[in-house]
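User: Here's a protein and a ligand (succinic acid). What would the complex look like?
Assistant: Let me lay out the input and then the predicted complex.
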Amino acid sequence: MPFKKIEVRPIAGALGAELRGVDLSSPLDDETFDEVKRAFHENLVIFFRDQQITPQQHVEFAKRFGKLDVHPFAKGLDDLPEVLPVIKEAADHAGNFGGTWHSDVTFYEEPALGSILYALETPAYGGDTMFANMYMAYDALSDGLKDRLEGLTALHSASRAYGAESRTSRRIAKGSESMEIKFGEDAEALVEHPVVRTHPDTGRKGLFVNHVFTQRFKGWTQEESQPLLDYLYAHAVRPEFTCRFQWRDGSIAFWDNRCVQHYALNDYHGQRREMHRVTVCGDRPFLAREAHPAAAE
Ligand code: SIN
């Protein structure tokens, strides 16, 4: 069905489209909002250019999609804790936030629906974000491996990202002060998710394990799980399943965390990058054994 209120320009074959004709500084009328939502479901990650929004306007747009999350480990703005500043200072050589392929907060029982990232200050070059399509990753597997994975549950936790021995704790030990992140507390709790999940809105199946938060398969040891997980992590981000977004000040990306992984490149040493992230809460992942009604639409 053609779009009437907005223009949708795909940026890659796998996923990602730039939306034109949308000004997010004022509330969207219902018809425009419905088209933005359709473009989101069809393209998995959508981009807007040249936006000028306040943190409050950012929050208002995000709230149209659901309740908002307050990150449990990284500190948000004092007056609007749902807005998480994602910053790397020019002098910070210790690493970056989101610099490994992942889906957001899969250590929750109900991981995020998606995140909306707004660029306030971008480096002259570098600092792109990559996205990968988890429907494609699932579809490209053999029938034999699909069957095996559909019987599996994975255990996820925040330990590798925010535990006492984590990447974040090492970054802070190396002197990174770009963001206020706590670690060590409450990061070890395990939650269970299906390895293949059905998207609640599109009915499509996608691969749902990620390098940062997935620990192992339920009922399997770490040693038994790791080779298959390593295969899936590499397979999931094959270049033909990805797109890459080059930021400018005022750009926005909104990714569907239920069927997309993302990766913030750390290739802009000596330059400052400042973004604001607002994350929309999601629901409990499930795998529909029968064809999901949304899949037929
Ligand atoms: C994130 O993983 O939320 C950060 C992405 C980015 O900074 O590009």
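Summary: The mean pLDDT is 93.
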